[in-house]
Predict the structure.
Amino acid sequence: MLNSCKLKIAGLQAWYDSRQVLKGFGMEIRANKITAVIGPSGCGKSTFIRCLNRMHEIVPGARVSGSVLLDEQDIYRANPVEIRRRIGMVFQAPNVFPAMSVFENIAAGLSLNGLRNKQKLREVVEKSLAQVGLLEEIGSFIHLPATGLSSGQLQRVCIARALAVQPEVILMDEPCSALDPIASFHIEELLSELKQQYTIVIVTHNMQQAARISDYTVFLSQGDLIEYGSTPTVFINPRDRRTESYITGRSA
Amino acid sequence: MVGFCGLSTLLISGLLLLVLGYITLHGLPGANLNFFTRLPAPVGMEGGGLAQAVAGSFILIGLACLIGIPWGIGAGIFLSEVGKDSWWGEGVRFAVDVLSGVPSIITGIFVYSILVVKLQSFSALAGGVALGIIMVPLVARNTEGILQLVPQGLREAALALGLPFWKVILKIILPTAARGIGIGVTLAVAGVAGETAPLFFTSLSNNYWSLGLLEPIASLPMEIFRYATAPFAAWHELAWTGALVLITIVVSGMLLARILLPGYNFRR
Amino acid sequence: MSRDLFRGMTAVLSLGLVLLVFLMAFVIWQQAEASVQKSGWEFIVSRHWDPVHEEFGALPYIYGTVISTMLAVLFAGPVSIGAAIYLAEFAPRRTKALLAFVVDVLAAIPSIVYGLWGSFVLAPFLRNYIEPWLGKNLGFLPFFQGSPFGLDMLAAGIMLAIMSIPVITAVAREVLETVPDGQREPLIAMGATPWEVVRIGVIPYARNGIVGAFTLGLGKAIGETMAVTMVIGNEPKISASLFSPAHSMTSVIVNEFAQATSVLHLSSLIHIGLLLFGLTLLINVLARLLIYQMSWRVKKRNENT
């Protein structure tokens, strides 16, 4: 169905020890669309998406309440390891595994979970590299350690690694902030292609980027959801004054 | 005043040279193949060696590693990954600190009381256990330190891929830290290779070529002691050479560590 | 394997460690109990160590340990602190690594090797050169009276000092390095000399940590066995003279253990071990507390700025 919803969030609250970071809100993430999450520093953007793949609870003292439904299944009642295979994540700084080659990195999600068939692994790795546009660039070097690559390439390897496990949703926590503008641009192009197959949620502090690539935008401030809607609406005709201030740069 | 401080460091370096110098001087002449392959010769005869001591030390260290390495790495993983900011973690860290401060003679008495008395004999096994216990805090502290140096982002990336926690630690984090942990283990081994006091109460010594685990066994440090305190000059020579061998093992281990991982401060 | 199972397994290993410590204390206590029952507090104050008549007073050994370790800290202290200050504050970067390596090697040399060197090189040197000189020129002091022996309290003190130096230096250096720059900068800005910066800004701040370093060194010296046994002379004498042979808690245990004549004899030796255990435990805990307290203080400062 065209505008079906992939993730349904309701009453989401999150704490670090006694400090409440997300104050409780709900929304829907549409399938096969890019949803951008924007907001001032400290508003809870990162915490928010970490709640979507149960990464928040890893930190000692962290707590979550509320529900997040992935296709009608509450992820908080399921096995977190399973959930994280269906909802992948790409982080701000490229974090390839240093003890492994590029090939092993991309295959890690599958090989460490039991897939040993070398042929199958090679197929998956090549497919993922092709998806992120690296197959020609580094195709012949994939059995070397991942250390010689540029940060743009490294970040794409991380994306390939996340894609290799064939998730349904990809969460991205400021994936371009450690990259130069050209590398960022390549990643943005990539995302526009990927959304045909995946649902993407991207946290970004770069508003031009959000406006360029996303279909929907969420604006958070101090742990509250201020506004959510289609990107053109939020950027051109925001309903809330705070959204407008943030977007036009008037407030912090 | 600054001069005094500089002088102090000079003094310390001088001390090192003094000690190492004498050992090399007296030990080098006897450092030949005989030392490693022959048993001690009767008094007055030439050509004896301390082969049984070298072999014995190998066995004792091997036993020690069987106990010390898994236990130490496991505790190190616990301190770094599992119990990090909890009460348990603090308690275990305290236990590790206490254990590392226990004089090795006490460890020897402890193992004597539980193993030697029960088995009615001094044994290589007891010696290995004592040395293993001494190794555990060294390995644990170093493992914890190295694991802490692995960036948190790696753990997150691995978890986010949908890998279970134990696989993240054992298959991704540990291999990343393998080099540092390996060096820590090497240094710990070098450290227990020279321990003598605990062996007095556990493995004691053996004049013959004995490799049985439930028998007393010779070891380099114990033989150095016996030969140094014996009234024969020829035996003193053996003691010096034995000391040279020990020092070589220890210093090579440290040099290796410096070369492979420069800058990392190995915890005592 | 679930996350909890994995954590459980490592927890078991670690708790096993805690249990080990308790077990050690328990077993040693148990073995020493016979002696504790028989000798009670007398054990610590009586000089009479007589295995034949089964009367055991450990004072000579306690005396030996106390005096030799105090000498060790006395000799090692200034040198270690000086070197630590040099390494932390004044040394040029290239030599710093080399000197740190030197200290580490000194720390890693096995006790038996030090003992060998001590008995064959240090003791004769003391007996033939140093002690006669001391006796001639400072003989009015009770410390330097009596005939030079070589294998005596002085040798033990020097030996232990050499072995404590690396520990004290390394820890003191770390302690000094954690002193925040905020302590040095205002003094530098005021035009203080490098030494004044250290004396006024760094040392007072690091005082507890430095005392902690000393204490750790003391703890290590108290537990030292082989090096002491080979140079201290192994005679249970209590004398003010540093030239007199002596005995320490550790050396008497290794000397008499194999030939212990009775269950009580053995138990008394282990009783000494128990005292040693308790002593080193206390000292190490004290040392750690002092050092942690300092790093805690630094952390608080950093949080507040």
